[in-house]
């Protein structure tokens, strides 16, 4: 298959893919991969296969094609191709919740000396790295990466990237419980979709609606949460987006749990768990198991709650997801307090505080914890964040956290 024929077949596949004929598109692209002798065409078709498998939640296949793409990039001996292929390798590992590998591949991308094309990818690299740091609950570094990605998006006038970063920032602020910002950023993403997204894939609309639904639920606006989640789920079903379907099912279950409708929540959690297991989203599975635990606690089935916690703890430890572990210790503390088992209670109290210290989830001004309840937060340029009211009332000349880190033990 020659260069022109390769190009024609790739375009044919893209047309089929955009018309929701995904399996036909995959067959066309696989045929190109088998028959084309053009390395640049093979590289491009591998990019199409990586994107399609990512959107379908076939993350192991996504990773397999990313590895082949790296070999093709080396054959082409072009730093731009190599940077793009390492970014796809990073993204594949991010989807499979291999966060340390993601960070390592992202650093490889940033260290490559490519041309302008590579520099334009740096925003996407920073976003992927930020998502990985967030998966590991390393909040300051996550925020630093998201802010870098946002700067790249603004400098390159890349509205799609800005939309994706806004959704990740929504997720970031949901985790540390600043629910105003958790809603603000996906609303900003939805505005970008309305203003610029006429030619974009509908996944951007679905993504922003899902993150809005999560924030609305946290704020207790359950009807708004349900509306946004239904909109997101409708698009996910139309486009066969399994990862988003799993997240929407989890959100539906959480909404029903917030309404104390446990009997409706359980089957939604089960459906979400089934898809999360199928696609390999272990971080999502932790969230599902946390929701299931809380349902058992509402029903006062404490032993069943502890069974769910045990499964979630194994996953969280395997991923290095410290926030998940903190939440599990918190739930265990409540359960053992009710059971009046003092030794186990003390053990989880100690572990809870160790997690808080490790993640620096406390305000460096007032010393109170961050992420325990809904609070307005403000980040300084160094990406350390504090209670907004503390910054407003105390003012600051530089960051108190950075000042503490710069004092060397033994020289105090």
CATH C-level category of the domain at 275-360: Mainly Alpha
Note the gap between the termini: 71 Å
Estimate the strand proportion. under 5%
Instruction: Write down the Rg.
Output: 23 Å
Do you know the CATH topology of the domain at 275-360? Serine Threonine Protein Phosphatase 5, Tetratricopeptide repeat
Identify the quaternary structure here.
single chain
Count of DSSP helices? 20
Which structural class is indicated by helix and strand composition?
mainly alpha
Query: What's the rounded overall pLDDT mean?
Result: 90
Protein name: 43 kDa receptor-associated protein of the synapse
Membrane topology: Peripheral membrane protein
Keywords: Cell membrane, Cytoplasm, Cytoskeleton, Lipoprotein, Membrane, Metal-binding, Myristate, Phosphoprotein, Postsynaptic cell membrane, Repeat, Synapse, TPR repeat, Zinc, Zinc-finger
Subcellular location: Cytoplasm, Cytoskeleton; Postsynaptic cell membrane
Structure description:
With 412 residues, the protein is an all-alpha fold. Among the domains are: 158-240, Serine Threonine Protein Phosphatase 5, Tetratricopeptide repeat, CATH 1.25.40; 275-360, Tetratricopeptide repeat domain (Serine Threonine Protein Phosphatase 5, Tetratricopeptide repeat, Alpha Horseshoe); 362-411, Herpes Virus-1 (2-Layer Sandwich). Helices cover 78% and strands 1% of the residues. It has 20 helices and two strands. The protein has helices at residues 3-18, 22-35, 39-56, 59-76, 79-95, 99-111, 116-135, 139-155, 159-175, 179-196, 203-218, 222-238, 242-258, 262-279, 282-298, 302-319, 322-339, 342-359, 388-394, 400-406; strands spanning 377-379, 385-387. A two-stranded antiparallel ribbon has the order 1-2. The chain is globular and about 75 Å long. Keywords: Cell membrane, Cytoplasm, Cytoskeleton, Lipoprotein, Membrane, Metal-binding, Myristate, Phosphoprotein, Postsynaptic cell membrane, Repeat, Synapse, TPR repeat, Zinc, Zinc-finger. Residues 363-403 form the RING-type domain. InterPro entries: Postsynaptic, RAPsyn, Rapsyn_myristoylation/link_N, TPR-like_helical_dom_sf, TPR_rpt, Znf_RING, Znf_RING/FYVE/PHD.
